[in-house]
Amino acid sequence: MEVDFQPEDSSSFKESIELGDVKDMRLEAEAVVSDVLFAVSEMYVSHSLDSALDVAYINVETRESNRYCLELTEAGLRVVGYGFDQVNEDLSTPYHETVYSLLDTLSPGYRQAFGNALLQRLERLKQTGH
């Protein structure tokens, strides 16, 4: 997956470079958002909740108008709240390896939009002979 990233300030960009193998979850969260934004109503990395190198929070509103706060860690993604910027420590929702898997369980509208985008892409490939 290739994502264009424009660092807001050079210190966070330098920090991500110096980490070597360690993933910066803030950058991962931005990549997750850009991957599936087309198939949800709204999605962005939380500005209110503190992200760190090992955790980031993503707010998502599905096409069914359901809002969730997602936690992204090395373990994967999971729902931690049922509203934007809400973290309920008592929730014990399962982790998903990918955002696609998580959204597939939460949103039939996502599933449909993703399927339609895939069909359109296959059609374009068919038309160009690839």
UniProtKB/TrEMBL annotation:
The GSKIP domain extends over 25-125
Record-level Gene Ontology MF annotations: kinase regulator activity; protein kinase A binding
One GO cellular component assignment for this chain's record is: cytoplasm
Q: Which GO terms describe its biological process?
A: regulation of canonical Wnt signaling pathway
Pfam families of this UniProt entry? Answer: GSKIP_dom (PF05303)
Superkingdom of source: Eukaryota
Family, similarity comment: Belongs to the GSKIP family.
Protein name as it appears in the record: GSKIP domain-containing protein
